[in-house]
Write a structure and sequence with these properties.
The complex is a heterodimer of chains A (313) and B (310). With 313 residues, chain A is mostly helical. Chain A is built from 16 helices and no strands. Chain A folds into two domains: 35 residues, no CATH class; 235 residues, MetI-like fold, CATH 1.10.3720.10. The two termini of chain A are 14 Å apart. Chain B has 310 residues and is mostly helical. Classes of the chains: A mainly alpha (313), B mainly alpha (310). Chain B: This is Sugar ABC transporter permease. Chain B: It holds the Pfam family BPD_transp_1.
Chain lengths: 313, 310
């Protein structure tokens, strides 16, 4: 970490005249002043607010966060609430499907685009533009397309396919797939861009060597190129994964949690309890569970990226 | 990165032994392989383009035409009435001012948030690369780690903090929140960029007696136009598309366009006018889409930059 810093540090030290211990605080003073916003963000928001939330999730705060410490009661309540449990189940089901499909589609599209095709930039442009749009726009467009009477279902029925059914948005058992279609529309292009960057980073010599050895192309992709792209894959999983845990806007716009509570997600539960349910303690307990989920995703990644530094490079 | 570098270094040795045909091979255009590749790509392109087509076409239709029930059909007599209604008089509950106040709110939020967040992040990146101090790397590590914390975890305490500061429910609050949450990714971006510049420039200026701000404004900034463009694209689209911070921190008067759009379309009152809904949706998507199509490769660079690890 500090290996590149040493010569720099030494350089500035000689300019500043080396010396007193007091200078530790004054050393690079303008830099420290300039970094105050960053320090405040880190200490107050990322550390302070997180600790505050974790602490107050163990209080019986209702309308205001003034309650007294009650341990894990809020969490017991949380997991006894069917809406929370539905939210968690939804998030797991949606999350697994979304992650798998995003990665697979993103990778397949990247491989296809990497075949020295014509109109490459046109295809790339078309695939990535949804990512520039907000989740609200995404959700509302798909809500209209999936409108049972006037959307795709109605249109195809009017055109003569009378038993065509595409009512996922109004069907509690299928609504997660409706979310998935909209979510994939928004995010797969981004995954494709990441994967394409990964593919282009693989050395041509690898391909030549594989060809000389007579390894079929698909086999080269799966057994040689994919493992070489590990860094990109891990990054993609972390980014997509933490996006899934945050899933909120899309649900609000597309289904608003309905029909009933069948497409509720934790982020929405937390939001509702904090800002309209008048039960802050519950909201904060839900938020802490979200944090825990992210940590479960993050810690293996952080370990892989930074823990095993010695044996790599 | 280092892996590819070593691979590239060893190329001369292997290149001599493998005899490769040079130049393009003459190939027939319609091979089964190509047909499969193109049909899959076209299939997915239709999936990506279909919503855009439906959104624009619906917005140009009239309600009787929409009730006829064919979302594929082109509008018989294209009209911008729905666009005008969406802009000026679409209702959210009892308030019938259309989307235009939301648009201007979004402008008022996006411009200052973009400028402030990019400036602070640029200074952070510069300080982290050229003026390291005790603990600066730890701050940076927490900053990056913090970008993965779900917003909901920090939302309530931030409401309390902004309320204490007396800015809750105002534009300043949203700008502050965007600056805070834009900081990790932007700082990463600038840090990596400044680290890639030749350090000799900085050292030379230092020897000549230039200080922190002088070097920043006179040497670093003029050299970092590309990364500013990337940051600009990232922030303008990101802030324009934000929903959560707008709905929590802006206050009803200052709701950004996304919030108003959602309120217009998902308001339960009255019979829904789908052409107005879609016109409003297109209008909201227009700004990021313009940024996307105008910036072209820069957008891709911005998106990819978010994924490059520090």
């Amino acid at each position: 970490m500090a290996d590149t810093a040493v010569p720099l540090e030494a350089g500035t030290e000689t300019v500043n005249r080396p010396g007193l211990l007091k200078r530790i605080l004054l050393h690079n003073l303008p830099a420290k002043i300039a970094a105050v916003p960053m320090m405040l963000t880190v200490l107050v928001v990322f550390v302070g607010c997180t600790i505050w939330t974790i602490y107050y999730s163990m209080t019986n705060s209702k309308l205001l966060p003034t309650g007294k410490f009650i341990g894990f009661d809020q969490y017991e309540r949380l997991f006894a609430t069917s809406r929370w449990n539905v939210s968690v189940t939804n998030l797991i089901a949606y999350g697994v499907m979304s992650l798998v499909f995003t990665l697979v589609i993103g990778f397949v599209l990247a491989v296809l685009i990497d075949q020295k095709i014509r109109f490459e930039s046109a295809f790339r442009t078309v695939m990535l533009y949804p990512f520039a749009l907000s989740f609200i726009v995404t959700g509302l467009v798909w809500q209209w397309i999936m409108n049972p009477t006037l959307g795709l279902q109605g249109t195809l029925r009017n055109l003569g396919w009378t038993n065509f059914t595409f009512d996922w948005i109004a069907n509690p058992r299928m609504v997660l797939f409706a979310l998935l279609i909209a979510g994939l529309w928004h995010g797969t292009g981004f995954c494709m861009v990441l994967m394409l960057a990964g593919l282009r980073g693989v050395d041509e010599e690898i391909w030549k060597a594989a060809r000389v050895d007579g390894i079929p192309t698909w086999r080269t992709y799966i057994s040689i190129v994919l493992p070489m792209m590990r860094g990109v894959l891990v990054t993609a999983v972390v980014i997509i994964g933490s996006g899934i845990v945050r899933l909120y806007d899309l649900v609000v716009a597309l289904t608003n949690g309905g029909p009933g509570i069948s497409s509720e997600v934790p982020a929405k539960y937390v939001f509702n309890y904090m800002f309209s349910g008048g039960n802050i303690g519950q909201g904060l307990a839900g938020a802490t569970m979200m944090l825990l989920t992210v940590l479960i995703i993050m810690i293996p990644w952080a370990y892989l990226e930074y823990g095993g530094k010695g044996k790599r490079t | 990165m280092s892996q590819t570098a070593t691979m590239a270094g060893s190329t001369p040795a292997t290149a001599g032994t493998v005899v490769e045909a040079r130049g393009p091979k003459p190939k027939p255009f319609f091979t089964p392989r190509k047909i499969i590749i193109y049909s899959v790509l076209v299939f997915f392109s239709l999936y990506y383009l279909f919503p855009l087509y439906v959104m624009v076409m619906t917005s140009l239709k009239t309600m009787p035409e929409i009730r006829f029930g064919n979302i594929f059909a082109l509008p018989q007599a294209p009209t911008f009435d729905a666009w005008i209604k969406a802009w000026t008089s679409a209702c959210t509950g009892l308030n019938c001012q259309g989307l235009s106040p939301g648009f201007w709110n979004s402008v008022k939020i996006t411009i200052p948030s973009t400028i402030v967040s990019i400036f602070i992040a640029a200074v952070n990146g510069y300080a982290l690369v050229n003026w390291r101090f005790r603990g600066s790397e730890i701050f940076f590590a927490i900053l990056i780690f913090g970008s993965f914390i779900p917003y909901q975890v920090m939302l309530y305490p931030l409401v309390m903090i902004t309320r204490e500061m007396g800015i809750f429910g105002s534009l300043q609050a949203v700008i502050l929140i965007h600056t805070v949450f834009g900081m990790p990714i932007l700082t990463l971006l600038f840090r990596n960029y400044f680290a890639s510049l030749p350090q000799e420039l900085f050292k030379a200026a230092r020897v000549d007696g230039a200080g922190f701000w002088r070097i920043f404004f006179e040497i670093m900034l003029p050299m970092s136009l590309p990364i500013f463009v990337v940051a600009l694209i990232l922030q303008v689209t990101g802030i324009w598309n934000d929903f959560l911070f707008g709905v929590v921190f802006a206050g009803t008067q200052n709701y950004p366009m996304t919030v108003q759009l959602n309120n217009i379309v998902n308001s339960v009152q009255g019979t829904p006018d789908y052409s107005v809904n879609m016109a409003a949706t297109v209008l909201t998507g227009l700004v990021p889409l313009t940024v996307y199509f105008v910036s072209g490769k820069w957008f891709v660079r911005g998106v990819a930059a978010g994924a490059v690890k520090g």
